[in-house]
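Protein details
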Amino acid sequence: MTVKLSVSNLVKNFDQKEVLREVNLEVKKGESLVILGGSGSGKSVLIKIIANLIAPTSGKITIDGENVSNINQKQRDKLMEKFGFLFQGGALFDSLTIWENIAFRLLYQQKMDKIKARKIALEKLSAVGLSAKIADLYPSELSGGMQKRASLARAIAAQPEIIFFDEPTTGLDPIMADVINDLIIANSKELGATTVTITHDMHSARKIADKVAMLYEGKIIWHDIIANLDNSQNPYLDQFIHGRALGPINFMAK
């Protein structure tokens, strides 16, 4: 398969703090990569750099063979058309209705006609298992699970080529979390999208991943197919995926 995105020798510093250290990754077209790691490991920073939301200190991000690490605003706007993003808290706009949230990019970036944009929003609502009846409600009128599904509908509304999922099941009960996992798989396959997910949820990781990478102290310490997760021979990964307090990762020191 063709490589859709790659990360080469990526470094990110905030003042004197080194958050990412020589990170290297690649994700093939249509593949699902899940990035694991404890709090403070650099997962959120990495996904935001890949998505061009923050700039790296050094290193290279390549999308479809093009170096996008130091592009101008016009090039960045064009690049962002390829991306969809499901933020950890959903990040729906409180002042907009659900359909307006879903169609936000269509309305305000693509300048699409409202009638056409609403039609697409309703289609995406259906794709995530929500009724058209909620289209004119506001986010505060929905449950957490419904808000998460509406956020997923927004992430896929503009037919993105790459979708980023930031802790997609955080705050959900186990059943709703599994519903979200199924919707992520179904909608990503429908679009043929490449996906990058960060999560602490091992059930979610096992269900949606083709490949898994683990970040520890700003470095990728393991990267392989999901089938090899339980036989990694990596003590850091083994401790993390089984949730053990004792092991090489000293959480008490953090």
The two ends are 40 Å apart (CA to CA). The chain is about 35% helix and 25% strand. The first helix runs from residue 43 to 50. The CA atoms of residues 191 and 245 lie 40 Å apart.
